[in-house]
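Holo prediction. Input below; ligand is pyridoxal-5'-phosphate.
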Amino acid sequence: MIDRIRQQVREAYGRAVGRPRGELVTPALILDLDKVRRNIETMAELRKGWRAALRPHFKAHKSPELARLQVGAGTGGVCAATVWEAIVLTRSGMDDVLIANEVVGREKIRALAAGARGHRLTLAVDDPRNATEVADALRAAGGRLDVLIDVDIGMGRGGVRSAGAAVALAGHVARLPGLRLRGVQGYEGHCMREADRAKRAAKVAGALDRLGAAAESLVRAGFACDVVSAGGTGTCEITGNDARVTEVQAGSYVLMDRFHGVLAPRFVPALTVLGTVITHQGATLVLDCGRKSVGIDFGPPSLADYPFYEPRYLAEEHAIFDVDDRCRLSLGDTAELIPGYAPSTINLYDAYHVVEEGRVVDIWPILPRGPGHVGILSD
Ligand SMILES: Cc1ncc(COP(=O)(O)O)c(C=O)c1O
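Structure of the complex:
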């Protein structure tokens, strides 16, 4: 199925190959490969001072081709948010995949157990019942899984709520066949909204104290804790330098967007959405890329060549800007938008138009697109 999707996408979008980046059918998702490479190099430089390894998060781009570039640049394994992403990754040749999230539900657990056969998968768990269900499915499928105890370190999303609960869950996991406890993970996502670097660093330190305390408690209770996994693009410079952390789960650094641009300005925007001006009436400029083509979770997009304009509104099919005489765009012109948030932008598309030196050189599928489960298992 994965190969079939790849082929369908190439058939559907392949005639764009060779065209200049400004002359595509819009809205079109553009991936600037030169900038992707720059971001990968920048991350490689940054990591030189870290004890921690980088485990790039696939959910940010959902492109096996991009994941391969990241792994080729010397990272360890990769990270996924869903079992379907993990299956895409293992079937694309990636063999050390962490699902940094809970997997709950009979069919998803069955898919996980089948996917674990012959691959090195690691799963985050925060509940003994879930761990038991996973172990039962592994026994039936004949697979094995590594496990991290997911610890809430202040975000209030997934994760056990205390070091004591982490130790209790570790004891439960240790008694289950097919599961091997490797350590802990925590995600300091609540720190990503702090634009002030010093305040962000203080918040991250507090969050990592909680993760470190859980790791220490595990070791004191006699459990293995070789892995301490945390971090994202907005905190990687802080979390990567923390001696307690063994791997950093940053993903967005490779594409970037406006949200991450504030937090990690050393990386450059490699992802844009090409739109066409469909109305220019007085001071109102309207492009054909609204919310159905640009994710706005953490803020609106900006015009790459006119960063001083903020959109007035994003309707389903319209991005509406109030412009002045600095704007040289007119009806039918194309312009590129930098999304507010890349992960929810790419999920709206079938494929990237991969661009080098201003021209489309390839079409890369978004896999799995959307919720991602349809058909992934049928081959
Ligand atoms: C568990 C987990 N790890 C890491 C990340 C970091 O991702 P990014 O680098 O894209 O901000 C996220 C983002 O949502 C996440 O949920």
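The chain has a mean pLDDT of 95. That is the main takeaway for now.
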